[in-house]
Each structure stands twice: as structure tokens, then as C-alpha cells.
Amino acid sequence: MSIKKLAPDKNLLERWQAAEILLFGGSAGSFKILFRIIKELPGAFGKTVILIIHRKKNFFSEIEKLFAENSRMYMREIEDKDILKKNTMYIAPANYHTLIEEGGYFSLDVSEAVWYSKPSIDVTFESAAEVYGDKCVAILLSGANQDGADGMLKIRKSGGLTIAQQPEDAEMPEMPRSAIKNGAAEYVLTQDEIFKLLLL
């Protein structure tokens, strides 16, 4: 599969506008770019946004509070059976895998960690591909392992729009590099290029 540079062509714009769900996967080094995204996305964004961020087991942080205080979109931590809604930003809870189910709701799973991580980006991406197919956009950011690459490949094969952060632009390049290596990333973009797309 080929990799493309960002260009405001008709195909890209149509797919971006038609997407119903936007997923971000990130781990080590992704906090700064996610915080910028949260601050800049408009309240009436028109899509459902889901953040899957690796966090240490049994480690409570102020991430949710900090993000919510700075978001223009309504933001909440996912709870089991929550319905996916537009113009809402969801953050996957620690110590659970987050799945998207037919019918447009979340389920939380307590099975074993994937790539030493729970929540796993792969698990959420794979379920999103099954339910939303070509209505998905998935963006994989900085991280220190390969989580997200296989799930992103499934989204791409389902017709979804897939983007990896440029590894040289990421604090920890392993995660986006893995998505590029296995052919999951249709586009490879810098932080600034990602923002240009988000605000189109």
C-alpha cells in the first residue's frame, strides 16, 4: 500500500467530511499534541472523537480533568454501554479495553493487556473498523511500542482514512513507524499537517 502526502484533493476532503468517527491512539510522547488537539477542536466538530492513551495500571492521573477543562467539545471518560454521540470527545479508561459495538455503543473488556497496555489501541481500532468501516479516521501518534499498527491496518482495509504521525516529528517514533512499516498508514503527516486536516 502506498503512502501519500497531505494534499487537499477531492478524495481526501470527501472522505474526511463523510467520516463519522475520529480515533486518536497515543502513548509516550503524545500528550503535547493531544493537548493541542483538544484545545483547538471546535465544539461543533460534527464527529465523535475517541482518545485511546496508554496509562500505567492503577495509576490515577489528572489527564481527564486537564483535558476536559481545556476542551471546547463535551468530554467524558467512557463507561460501559455509553452511546457514541457526535460533538463529544471520549477518553478510554485505564485498566479496560474499549470496544465499539454494532448499534453505536461502547463496551469495556477486562481481558489481558495487549502490547503490555490496557487500554489497547489495536482493540479499539479493530472494533471501529468492523462497525464504522469507511466512516472512520484513525490517527496514530507518538509511542514506544507497536500497539495500534494492526488495528489501523484493519481500518485502512475497511476503507477508513489512516494517518500516522511523521516518526521524525514524534517524541517516540516506534508506534507511528510500525504503522508505516506494515502498510497501515495511508498518510504520514507532521503535527502541523495533522492540524491542517483537522481544521479543514
TrEMBL record:
Which biological process, per GO, is one annotated for this protein?
Answer: chemotaxis
Residue stretches making up the CheB-type methylesterase domain: 15-200
Give TM segment ranges.
none
Which reactions are catalysed by this chain?
[protein]-L-glutamate 5-O-methyl ester + H2O = L-glutamyl-[protein] + methanol + H(+)
Q: What SUPFAM superfamilies does this protein's entry cite?
A: Methylesterase CheB, C-terminal domain
GO-annotated cellular components: cytoplasm
User: Can you name this protein?
Assistant: protein-glutamate methylesterase
Q: Which organism is it from?
A: Mucilaginibacter celer
